[in-house]
Fold this protein.
Amino acid sequence: MLTIPIRHAGGEQGRQKYKEVHIDNSYQWQRQHWRSLQTAYRTSPFFEFYEEDLAPLFERRFDFLLDFNFNAIAGICRCLEIEMPKRKTSGYKPSVSCYQDARFLVNAKKAVPIKQLNYVQVFGDRHGFIKNASVLDLLFNEGSRARDYLQQQDLNFLHV
């Protein structure tokens, strides 16, 4: 798992808004992440095809986690050839009624009850299919078929 180090607001500051979360750039996390991706996926069928599009995420310095995440989402949208969502919320709402509330998907402490279709993965012959790996895993292994693969997924688990 690749994690981005952040500077924690502590003491009197308490919790911080997502848009105020600073990345801790005292550690060369981007270099380590990119090398890890290269090591894991260099032999995948489509790594070289997307390498040039994704490398800037790991070369450009980002001060805020939100900025990195928006750039990462934009890069993935370009690779998948889908439109980048333009609307943003202006604040946190405890419940939503006009949209599908899928915020539970970001809770790393709970397993997501997803039934995911298999695709060929780089180390699948040794480890079997590893579900819910990442969109990068999907892109590097499926290439231009990744968007079609995503559209075929059963999303009924969202309606729990």
Notes: The radius of gyration is 17 Å. The chain has a mean pLDDT of 90. The longest strand covers residues 6-7. The helical segments are 29-41, 47-54, 65-80, 124-127, 135-142, 146-151.
